[in-house]
Specification:
five-stranded mixed beta barrel, single chain, mainly beta, 6 helices, 21 strands
Length: 333
């Protein structure tokens, strides 16, 4: 028996007997209302232990054969595919090729701790700003929501869908993000205002679109996903290196025009207004030495309650695994 497993980045069209050990990090159905149902497809992004990714597609005739045995987040040993060029205007991986399932494709579920990564690969705002034309590769992006504006519904395939414009802040810059469809349900004003701080947002598989004077991000319906204050290690990492987000943002409030905006001390956000401990000492401030000057919070900024090995967040209404330390320091000036 051949136990050799191929790495995803080595896959080419020159053979079909590829054998990969991969995690399904993304799974979605492509249903175009303008086409016959026989044109429906099931898509996946597969990732190996080296974090290399490739898209795989199951055609309509084979969806019933494989769909029940595939779950996002699970790890599989897969063999035998047709390999074709990775083309199109909305590519979810940068691999040169993608996989097509055959009738004899084998999918075997395995237990493996070797692929713990979420599969997200975040583009920086500087990388986004360098794009000068519509980008064919979809990107992941992490930031803080500093503005939300509901727009009129727009038409898509003969139906009206919701539309919301976000302002997302990261690394000292802002970028506009247009969101259409069911993803707007996560951006209802009352849901976003319940958090103690402007919420984190993960934009998964979003399109970079060039406009006059810059770029915007936009979701692709049925492909892109949006996560608010996700309980993942990347949230803690982002907030830890971006100290302004930990200490400076207020919760989102409604302005005179009815939009949600983030403010600091009654003014629109200005990162220069945020002070650190060293600044306070230099300004003749005295940090008071008191007990209970720190506590654990969810990534949403709300204090959590420790219960056995779990942390409970009332704002998110769930148990969370990844927590942060928040500081409550009284200062005498």
């Amino acid at each position: 028996m051949n136990n050799r497993v191929d790495l995803v980045d080595k896959i080419t069209p020159w053979r079909e007997s590829w054998k990969v050990h991969v995690k399904v990090v993304k799974l979605w159905y492509h249903k175009n209302p303008a086409l016959d149902p026989s044109q429906n497809l099931l898509h996946m992004v597969l990732m190996d232990e080296k974090l290399h990714k490739i898209q795989a597609t199951i055609r309509y005739q084979l969806i019933s054969k494989f769909s029940l045995s595939l779950n996002e987040g699970d790890v599989y040993l897969m063999t035998h595919f047709t390999v074709v060029p990775n083309t199109g205007l909305n590519r979810v991986t940068k691999h040169r090729f993608r996989l097509l399932f055959q009738y004899n494709t084998s999918v075997v579920s395995v237990v493996s701790p070797r692929i713990p990564h979420s599969g997200l690969c975040f583009a920086s705002i500087d990388e986004i700003d360098q794009i000068t034309k519509d980008h064919n590769f979809l990107i992941d992006f992490f930031g803080i929501i500093t503005g939300v504006r509901k727009e009129r519904d727009v038409e898509s395939y003969g139906k009206l869908v919701k539309a919301v414009v976000l302002e997302v802040f990261a690394d000292g810059k802002r970028v506009q993000c247009n969101v259409f469809g069911n993803a707007c349900d996560l951006l209802e004003y009352d849901k976003l205002q319940k958090y103690a701080r402007s919420p984190l947002v993960v934009l998964e598989s979003f399109k970079i679109k060039a406009i006059e004077g810059g770029v915007i991000l936009q979701n692709v319906i049925n492909v892109s996903r949006l996560f608010i204050n996700p309980d993942i290690p990347e949230s803690v990492e982002f907030l830890s290196r971006f100290s302004v987000a930990r200490y400076g943002f207020s919760r989102l409030v409604t302005n005179d025009l009815g939009y949600l905006v983030s403010k600091v001390d009654g003014d629109y956000f200005n990162p220069k207004e945020i002070s650190n401990i060293q600044d306070l000492h230099s300004d003749n401030g005295e940090v008071m030495d008191e007990p209970d000057w720190w506590y654990y919070t969810c990534v949403c900024g709300h204090a959590v309650v420790e219960h056995e090995d779990l942390y409970l967040c009332d704002a998110c209404g769930s148990c969370v695994e990844h927590v942060m330390v928040k500081y409550g320091i009284r200062v005498k000036i």
